[in-house]
Amino acid sequence: LDFDKIKDLVDDLDEADANELAAGQRLLDTAREGLNPLLTTTAYAVYPMGRSALYFNLNAIGRAALLPVGDGDALLNNLGDGIVVDAQASALANVGLTYSVDAGEGWRCGLGLRGVYMLARNYQYTATLTAPNTLNSADAVGNTGELNASTLTGDVGFLYTPEDPTRLGLGLVIRDLTQPTLTDQGTSVRLRHQIDVGLSTRPAPGVVLAADIHDLTGSRTGRSTLHFGAEKVVSRTLTLRAGMYQLPRAQFPGDSMTFVGGLRFQWWRLYLDLATTGTPREFLALQGGFVKLF
Questions:
Q1: Contact 159/170 with Cβ under 8 angstroms?
Q2: Which of 39, 60, 66, 151 is the most buried (most CB within 10 A)?
Q3: Cα–chain-centroid distance for residue 29?
Q4: What is Dmax (Cα atoms) for the chain?
Q5: Sign (positive/negative) of CA torsion 124, 127, 128, 134?
């Protein structure tokens, strides 16, 4: 994955939104290349304290969908040539404290309180050649300024772990119970509650197989998504992972099934995950993907 190209793409989005013709041409070139990047970077740390745990995680997400319009050639040279831009960039940080209790018969219940900080920006507009050497950008409804805000929310979870690890375990979590709203300079984002449920089993020492349904009610992304995965513990510091999951069709229409594979490194209470992912078409073409750190 070419990180420099993604950075250049973000710069071009800003410049084309300011009606810079050269940036519009670069965006048209990117659209014709079929580059619709998805980038996720996550880091987290956990500090157990008996029944409680203090944790921190940071999740950054960027994606872009670019569509050329006009006569279909490679140049912004005819009136009406241009590009439709639909892109988002966001960073979400969480600092939280969880408390869990043994409910008996293999069950544990947990409650979490966390502070949320979000930095986000939506780019949604059309950039069109309206006169010779004149690029005109028109904002779409979803185009927003920068959101920089924080709030408090809570989560609750339930976990069943059977005595026989080869049998199925069950987990359920309800995130953002209070459904808080982050607001800044007239831009608002509501963190709707999300219900995730999953099954897991350990068929052999150091091997975990899991299947999850995220956003069970579709309240956050418009529909639930399926996630499947497996991991193998190689050593105290290294774990191998592979799986596949769906992207929400409301945000990623078309080919929504994505493969993922990667490595986890663990040192003390810090975790680092490196992974690559892409749709079946991208994997076959050996292109696309994202890197995930957590």
A1: yes
A2: 66
A3: 25
A4: 74
A5: positive
Q: Residue 174 carries which side chain, given as an amino acid letter?
A: I
Burial class for 224, CB neighbours closer than 10 Å (0-12, 13-18, 19+): buried
What six digits make up the tokens of 258?
Answer: 């994505």
Q: Are 278 and 245 in contact (CB under 8 A)?
A: no
Which two tokens mark 282?
A: 């991208």
How far apart CA 80 and CA 63 sit, in angstroms, is 26
Q: How many CB atoms lie within 10 A of CB 140?
A: 13
Helix (H) or strand (E) holding 23: helix 21-33
Cα within 13 Å of Cα(145), Cβ side: 7
pLDDT tier at 145, thresholds 50, 70, 90: confident
Report the alpha-carbon distance of residue 241 to residue 231 in Å, rounded: 4
* DSSP state, residue 177: T
Percent of the chain with pLDDT over 90: 36
Q: Which of 121, 123, 115, 93 is nearest to 187 (CA)?
A: 121
